[in-house]
Amino acid sequence: MQVEAREEIWPLKETFRISRGERCETEVVVVTIRDGEHVGRGECVPIRRYNQSTDSVLAQIGSINREKSLNRQSSEKLLPAGAARNALDCAFWDLEAKKSGKRAWELANIPMQPEVATSFTISLDSPAKMAAAAKANSSAPTLKLKLNGEDVDLARVEAVRAAAPAARLLIDANESWLPNHYEKIVPALKKLGVALIEQPFPAGADEVLKTLEHSVPVCADESCHTRADLASLRNRYDVINVKLDKTGGLTEALQLCASARELGFKLFIGCMVGTSLSMAPARVLASVADYVDLDGPLLLARDREASLPYENGRIGIPSRDLWG
Q1: Are the C-beta atoms of residues 54 and 29 closer than 8 Å to each other?
Q2: pLDDT-derived band at 247, boundaries 50, 70, 90
Q3: Nearest to 44 by CA among 95, 1, 6
Q4: Largest CA distance in the chain
Q5: Please, what sign has the CA dihedral across residues 88, 92, 94, 95?
Q6: Segments forming the whole domain that contains residue 280
Q7: Which of 20, 118, 247, 287 has an alpha carbon 20 to 30 Å from 267's alpha carbon atom?
Q8: To 10 degrees, what angle do helices 127-136 and 153-163 make?
Q9: Quick check: is 193 in a domain?
């Protein structure tokens, strides 16, 4: 078994801004596993929020790639949940699919929908510029708006709603709000038809959600990584955002989704800004989700030659050349 990992840098179409900062490119790590006959690939996006970098991810993978019995199950024990394990896990899923002659979703026993709708993310900016971005992407059935807790947040949403009156609107605060901002803005957001508010408060400071009205469903992102987090999220959140770069791959993500459903949570399948190779494993989960945000490749200046099919806000099935 040969495991290789490398860094890749992909430029974005435009500067991407959230409450924590901005970027004009995305850095990913691609893992390739060869068994002598078949090749499996996986991609991860190191998350700065959790002190990850391409260097740290490459070091983690390098620390275990000489393990004689390295496989999908052992990598769960050798690496913590996070980006490095995600790339390995997804590469093993791809390899298993190639060896078996089946598709990855068949191995996972997931009914794959021919296509699913995805939201398109509107980067944090002035109300006018966010409205212009919404108008330019009017074919997207769902728009996800990045906010940052400023007084102008409501004006941003109002401007986008005027520009895209038929779109389903989701809000992502990326941990930037305070409780008084939440109480002030949420009634107005409900009137504007906002369908979801994602991670309004910092992880670890979200207990206040137990006491606040949820007239708009609230989704946990930074507060939810793996099944171990679910117990503390009850009575705080209505929805959980499952990202493979948080769970450490498709293996844990499948179990997280099943456990979350049992506890009554709705499912949001999200992503970091990556290529179609990052999105393809998450596309499996999207078939059984309530909300889907797998628009990473749409934010890139270019995608991989073998890429996911996107059309009018909907995603098709990944080809064998891409993954799984």
Answers
A1: yes
A2: very high
A3: 6
A4: 60
A5: positive
A6: 116-315
A7: 20
A8: 30
A9: yes
Q: What one-character DSSP code corresponds to residue 112?
A: -
Residue 289 belongs to a domain:
yes
Q: Give dist(CA 122, CA 154) in Å, integer.
A: 15
Which pLDDT band, with edges at 50, 70 and 90, does 1 fall under? Answer: confident
Match 């699919």 to its residue by tokens. 97
| The pair of three-digit structure tokens given for residue 198, joined into one six-digit string | 């994602």
Using CA atoms, how far apart are residues 163 and 156, in angstroms rounded to an integer? 11
Give the end of a domain, one of 66, 101, 136.
101
Contact 113, 138 (CB under 8 A): no
- DSSP summary character for residue 215: S
pLDDT digits (tens, 9 = 90+) for 36-62: 899 999 999 999 999 999 999 999 999
User: How far is residue 201's CA from residue 178's CA, in Å, rounded to a whole number?
Assistant: 7
Active site residues: 146, 243
Return the half-sphere exposure (C-beta side, CA atoms, 13 A cut-off) of residue 262: 9
For 288: left if phi > 0, alpha if psi spans -120 to 50, otherwise beta; the answer is alpha
Give the CATH number for residue 59: 3.30.390.10
| pTM score | 0.95
pLDDT (average), residues 214-238? 97
E strand or H helix at 19: none
Instruction: Work out how many domains the chain is built from and give that number.
Output: 2
Task: Count other Cβ atoms within 10 Å, centred on residue 210.
Answer: 9
